[in-house]
Amino acid sequence: xxxxxxxxxxxxxxxxxxxxxxxxxxRARFGMFVHYGLYAHYGRNEWxxxxxxxxxxxxxxxxDAFAPxxxxxxxxxQLAVEAGMKYMVLTTKHHEGFCLWDTKMTDFNSVKRGxxxxxxxxxxxxxxxxxxxxxxxxxxxxxxHPDGWRCMTDSDAAERFRQFTRGCVRExxxxxxxxxxxxYDVSRPxxxxxxxxxxxxxxxxxxxQPGLIINNRxxxxxxxxxxxxxxxxxxxxxxxxxxxxxxxxGYVPSDQAAPDSYNVRGILRMLHTACAGSGNLLLxxxxxxxxxxxxxxxxxxxxxxxxxENFGEVVYGPRERGQPTCCGWANATVSGNxxxxxxxxxxxxxxxxxxxxTALKSARLIGDDRSIAFEQHxxxxxxxxxxxxxxxxxxxxxxxxxxxxxxxxxxxxxxYRHLQWLQ
Length: 423
Ligand code: GLC
Description:
Helix content: 25-40%
Radius of gyration: 24 Å
CATH topology of the largest domain: TIM Barrel
Bound molecules: alpha-D-glucopyranose
Strand order of the largest sheet: 5-4-3-2-1-7-6
């Protein structure tokens, strides 16, 4: 393999630099996914080409109608900042094969067709302007490239397609300054790291971008796992990617998406699970054909941003994995000696918390230095003087910090022998 390391040596090498490379990512917690491509024109899911069996020549014509409004990447970036997100990931090429950058690898791109502009360059500039870290999504699977399926049965086509893939990644990693995340998707049909040449391509990418973080979808484990469509805690660095509406990654008309859309509480619930499991949340928007942010996303994202202005200290930053179930009125996250209770129901009187065996030192509301009076006995904490109403007008999701004398030990139901299986 010449200049390239074996898989074992490569994995050892990237593991050794992982803490340093991923420090910002582990603190960031919350990012914006942007699915933007020709499928926006159809407004019926980013898989429309395959799901509706549209022939390539017919689909291809959409490229000439592709007309992002000037400045739309700035609007995405601005909204991401308003939402309290710290990074973005843009689909530079989705499965349809249309490249949003000035590539020499194919003419099917946004400079040769449609707007005649390098949308990736505009996006990178917008991320830099707003201080966001920059991620590139890249679909390995390609429905447009003639070798995209031929590579399955024809070894020459497979080699050409590997070279095409490597050439695209090389351009993305060479032409836009420092890039933070390479986010691969769908490894069909080659289905192995050998098939895709991922070991070599990813080493090349890291040589070009020494700080790069790579996801796990090129058939190598790389830096982080990518649970999709559910915020599922994993035993490694992980990032859950979620659509905004439960229907589609690509644009669907707002009036139809709205009933299923996530509201501010839904998004906070996802963020809570991400924090509790020491993972990240990558929440998607599918811009409209002209690149505008879909209306149903704007309000909830701004509200989440306002909530994060008040409670961000419990979200950003490294967390331990684990979420004690300690009461019905709040969900918990843990950080060292501290437990954060993200309230779900505001208790209208003294509020009980069961199961902590460790001594509580203090309790306070995030955003308020005044401490909350408490009693603690028999593995039961009672907060005595909470305000009558939730101090969070945005989502009724205030956060209470409990600081213990040492990392807390917790076991629910210890008074009730029937529940010993919980411990
Ligand atoms: C899936 C879908 C794709 C989407 C991706 C996001 O793999 O094929 O449309 O971009 O998930 O994670």
